[in-house]
Amino acid sequence: MTILEALQWANNKLKKVGIESPMLDAELLLASVLDVPKSWLFGHIADNLKPHQEEKFFMLIDRRLKHEPVAYLINKKGFYGRDFFVDPSVLIPRPATETMIEHALDAFAKCDREKTLFVDIGTGSGAIAITLAAETQTPVLAIDSDQSALVTARRNAQSISVEEHIDFQHGSLLEPLITLFETIRASGNPNISSVFPFKDLIVCANLPYLTTAQMNTLDPDVRFEPVRALVAGVDGLDAYWDLFRQFKKQREILPRHITVLIEIDPDQVNRSLQLIRHYFPESTVRIEKDLQKNDRIVLAEI
């Protein structure tokens, strides 16, 4: 079987079960089997596959026919120009989340870079934390409640060579951050700020925000991803209520300037604004759109 024949066969099989991008998926899977860039395939369409390559390709196509995501099949997903290792322990990074990176970097440009700390709550694969570290060479605290996700995130940090900038911590939401500032306060010089050396916090949180009802109507591909990283109660905002409740309770121990960016479903705009202003009525809040022009990022200065 030639490369062209393999791609045509796979395209036809995937199309029959309703895969949205059958040829692209076939190309990505075959490129992974051959360990070559996807573009390489087009210059070698008459090349014959070896038997073991055919067998592996057929196996991957069989799994894709069951709607297992391509990113899990090849253990790779691009995000903000870099490739990240992903497996079923972590959510697959989405292009929409790149909007959060852009606005976090905009906020960082207004800060004193020597006294700014990025925080990534629910880091998963580490895509947000690692991208911020790579783009700014600035310290990042990356937090997740799942140890297996932290293993994946550390692996990605090492492969992208930013591990020295990121402190990965296991914990629930802000708990490791609060511990950090309690330690700073306890050991600090009384003549300097209690939160030295940080003046600004930029907190990114792409927490689960799907409703329980939405979970029942998801694309088949998404059902392979970890439910804990997707669903957050009846209105999808349980995790964010918990996050801002912690912010309110611990606000005095944290730096004066805090910018929080959260990712939401477009239908959650009004409820997320109400949530934030419930705890921080004087906060400055704005909504930013993603690449598809959907309301996606809530940015709050609290």
UniProtKB/TrEMBL annotation:
Transferase in keyword set: yes
Entry keywords, A to Z: Methyltransferase, S-adenosyl-L-methionine, Transferase
GO BP term (any one): methylation
Gene3D superfamilies in the cross-refs: DNA helicase RuvA subunit, C-terminal domain, Vaccinia Virus protein VP39
Span of domain Release factor glutamine methyltransferase N-terminal: 5-74
Q: Can you tell which superkingdom this protein's organism belongs to?
A: Bacteria
* Pfam families the record matches: PrmA (PF06325), PrmC_N (PF17827)
Presence of keyword S-adenosyl-L-methionine: yes
GO molecular function list = protein methyltransferase activity
NCBIfam families on file: hemK_fam (TIGR00536), RF_mod_PrmC (TIGR03534)
From the Swiss-Prot or TrEMBL record, give the protein name.
Protein-(Glutamine-N5) methyltransferase, release factor-specific
